[in-house]
From TrEMBL:
Residues 3-98 form the SPW repeat-containing integral membrane domain. The chain crosses the membrane at residues 31-50, 57-78, 84-107. Pfam families: SPW (PF03779). Signal peptide: none annotated. Keywords: Membrane, Transmembrane, Transmembrane helix. This is SPW repeat-containing integral membrane domain-containing protein. The keyword Membrane applies.
């Protein structure tokens, strides 16, 4: 699960950076959204690296945050800025797919029976 958490961490970090680097409308609302949801995605992915397995709910939230961030160009009316539109939608899609993928893997791992080795 580690590489997907790293990718999600990069996406979260990108959203934080994009608050200033990719804000064509200079929207305070976009800055706030990008920082908050970027931090949440970053925190969930770091949490996943620190505490692997289980807790699939955190990945469903990550997916939801990615969906929201992918739609922000439409919410904050910067669809006419092609590069900002596509980069934001792509990063949101990566967070959405990565979050769902992680949730499915986490659910499968937590539902698997434990294998314990007993010393004879």
């Amino acid at each position: 699960m580690t590489w997907r958490n790293v990718v999600l961490a990069i996406v979260g970090l990108w959203f934080i950076i994009s608050a200033w680097a990719l804000n064509p409308m200079h929207s305070g609302a976009y800055v706030t959204s990008a920082i908050i949801f970027g931090v949440l995605i970053l925190a969930a992915s770091i949490w996943g690296l620190a505490v692997p397995g289980g807790m699939s709910w955190r990945y469903y939230l990550t997916a939801l945050f990615g969906l929201y961030m992918g739609l922000t160009p439409f919410f904050f009316s910067f669809t006419r800025f092609g590069a900002a539109l596509w980069i934001t939608m792509l990063a949101g899609l990566i967070a959405l797919v990565g979050g769902i993928w992680q949730a499915m893997v986490a659910a499968k791992v937590s539902g698997a029976p434990e294998h314990r080795h007993h010393a004879a």
